[in-house]
Amino acid sequence: MAQGLFDEIVMHEMGHVVGFGTLWSLKGRLQNPSLSGGADPFFNGPEAIAAFDRNGGAGYSGGAKVPVENTGGSGTADSHWRESVFDTELLTGFLDGGVPNPLSVISVASLADLGYLRANYAAANAYVLASPLLRAGAGQEHSFGADAFGGVVTLVDAQGQPRGTARLRE
C-alpha cells in the first residue's frame, strides 16, 4: 500500500461500494464503453455534466462529457474518471502521492445521477479541472489496479430479502 494514503484508498474503494463505476452500466449512465470497443467512454448523468461544466469543464473539447477512463483494462477502464482529464481527483484509476486527491462535486453529482436522493454536495472537496500543463510535476502516481468489481450480485429489498440478481459492469 502507498505510504500515507490509507484514507484516500479507503474513500476511493467506498466510492465503488456505493456504485461509482460499478453501477454505471446497470443504470444506463456509461456510454461508449472502451471494453466493448468504444474509444471515448463517458458518463451521461445530467447532474455530473452540470458539475463538470461548473468546475472547469465547460470548454472541454476532448470528447464527450464526463470522460471515463479508456485505458487500463477491466477494473480500471470504464469504471473511473479519465486520468488525463481529472488527474488528482480521488475517483480516477490512479492515486497521486504528495498532493491532495480531492473528492470532487462531480463525483458527488454522479451519485445523484445513480439515484441517491441525498447526495451531499457540501461534502465534496475543493476541486477544479485544470490544464495538464498546470499539473506537471505532481507527485508519484499509484495505480488502483483492477479494483472495480464486475460480477453478479444479489439484489435485496429493504428488509434484506433476496429479490433477484444483476450483473455489474459489462
Topology:
Layout: H1 6-17, E1 30-31, E2 42-43, H2 46-57, H3 83-86, E3 94-96, H4 105-113, E4 141-143, E5 152-156, E6 162-167
Antiparallel strand pairs: 1-2, 3-4, 5-6
Distance between the termini: 28 Å
Order of helices and strands: HEEHHEHEEE
What is the number of helical segments per DSSP (H or I, 4+ residues)?
4
Portion of residues in helices? 10-25%
Summarize the structure.
With 170 residues, this protein is an alpha+beta fold. The protein has helices at 6-17, 46-57, 83-86, 105-113; strands at residues 30-31, 42-43, 94-96, 141-143, 152-156, 162-167.
Describe the structure.
The protein is of the alpha+beta class. It has helices spanning 6-17, 46-57, 83-86, 105-113; strands spanning 30-31, 42-43, 94-96, 141-143, 152-156, 162-167. The chain has a two-stranded antiparallel sheet with strand order 1-2. Strand 5 (152-156) and strand 6 form a beta hairpin. Helix 2 (46-57) runs antiparallel to helix 4 (105-113). The chain is globular and about 45 Å long. It starts with 5 loop residues before the first helix and ends with a strand.
Overview features:
170 residues, two-stranded antiparallel ribbon, alpha+beta
